[in-house]
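Can't paste images in this forum, so I'm doing it all in text. The chain is below; anyone willing to post the predicted C-alpha cells underneath?
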Amino acid sequence: MSGRAEERERLAAERGYRVYGYRWVVLGVVMAVNFMIQVLWIGYGSIIADAADYYGVSHQLVTLLAMVFMIAFIPLSLPAAWVIDSRGFRVAVGFGVVMMGVFGVLRGLAGSNYSLVLVCTIGIAVAQPFLLNSWTKVPANWFAPGERATAVGLITLASMLGVGAGLALSPVLIGSMSIGAMQLVYGGLAAVSAVAFLALARERPATSPGPAGEGARALMLDGLKHALTVKPFLVILAVAFVIMGVFNGVTSWIGDIVLPRGFGADDAGLLGLVMLVAGVIGAVVLSAMSDSQGKRIRYLVLTLALAIPSLVGVAFVSTSLLLYVSSAALGFFIVGALPIGMQYAAEVTYPTPEGTSNGLVQLCGQCSVVFVYIMGPLRTDSGSFAVSLVLMSALLAVAAVVVSRLKDAPPRAGATTGASASGGPLAGSDGAVIDAAAPVGPDAPRPPAPVG
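Text version of the structure:
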C-alpha cells in the first residue's frame, strides 16, 4: 500500500468522512440541466423580430415568452426551496427536469401556434425554480467545505454558458430551419439532459463530505424564520438584488447605452458577449480563490468595488478598446460575485437549509428586473443612460461599504479550505480529506449526525 493510500485509510478511520470522485458526475449532470433551462429561456432573445413574424404576433408577445420565467419564479421560489430541503434536490430537480424535457419537446412540436407555445413555455418556467434553487444544495451534499463556492461557481458557469448559447445559436439555426424546428432541437437536448440527470444523480454519498453534524439543518419554515433574523444574510439579499439588477439592466439595454456614442448593433452584440464570457471566467476563478483562502467577505468587497469603475467605463468611455475592457471587467466582477455571495449566504444562515437560503437569494435576483424598467424613464432626451448607470454605481459603492463591515461565517468543527500537499481536496481539522473514486447508490446508508 502506498504512503498516500495509507494516509487516506488512517484519515478515513479518524475522521469518518470523505469526498467521492462521483461528486463530479453529479455536478456534471446538474450543470447540464441548468445549461439547458437557460437555453430554453433565452432562445428567442436574439430573434425577436423573426419570432414575431413566424408566430404572427407582436414583439411584446415574443418578449413575454422570456418574461413568464421571471413571473413564475416569484411565487414558486419558496415552494421549490421547501421541496429541495424536505424531499432532497434529486426529487426536486428531478421534477423540474421532467417538466423541462416534456414541455421543451412539446413547444417544438407546437410549430407556429403561439398559444400552445406560450402554454408550453409556462410549463418550462415552472421547472426553473426547482433547478436554480438547488445551486448550493448539491455542493453541500457532495463537496467538502473548501470546494463548495467553486462548485457553485461551476454551476453558475453552466448557467451563463446556456444564456450565451441560446443567444448565439438561435440566429444561426433559423438560417437552416424553422423556429419551431429550432425549438424542437432545444427541447430534445433538454430531454437528453433530463434523462442523464435522472439516471446519474444521487442525493448524497455513503458518508458525509464534512464533519459530523455539519450537514444537520433545520426544517424549512424554522430555517426561513432564522434566516430572516440574520443581518448579514439580509445584506446579501440586498446585494444580490443590486448585482443582478446591474447585470440585467446593462445587458438588456446595452445597444441603447452605447448608441449615443456612435456604436452600432454589431458592437452591442459583441459587448454583451464579452461581458458574458468574462462573467463565466470570473465565476470560476474568483470562487476558486475564495475557496482556497476561505474568505468570502474579502472577495465580495473586491468584486463590488472593482465593478464600479467598470460600470462608469461602460457609461462614459467613447473608444472601442476602453469600452470592451470596461464591459469585460464589469462581467468578470459582477457575475463573479454571485456564487461567492450564495455560498456565504448558505454558511452564515446555518442551520437554515441551503435550498431555502439560495431560494431567497435567487428570488431577490429575479426581482431585480425592476432595474430594467426603471432605466427607461431615467433615459435623457439625448438617449443617454448616464443617470441610471451612475445611480447603479452609487448602489454598488454603498453595497461594498456595507459588506465590508460583515465578517466571514465562523468555521464549524472540522471545516477547512484549500488543497492538501498531495494534491487532494481538503476537509478536516488538520486540512486533509479522503478522496474516494467509487460512486454510490441512491440508498447508500447515511451516518448519524447529531444536531446542536
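The chain has two domains: 18-216, 219-409. The chain has 17 helices and two strands.
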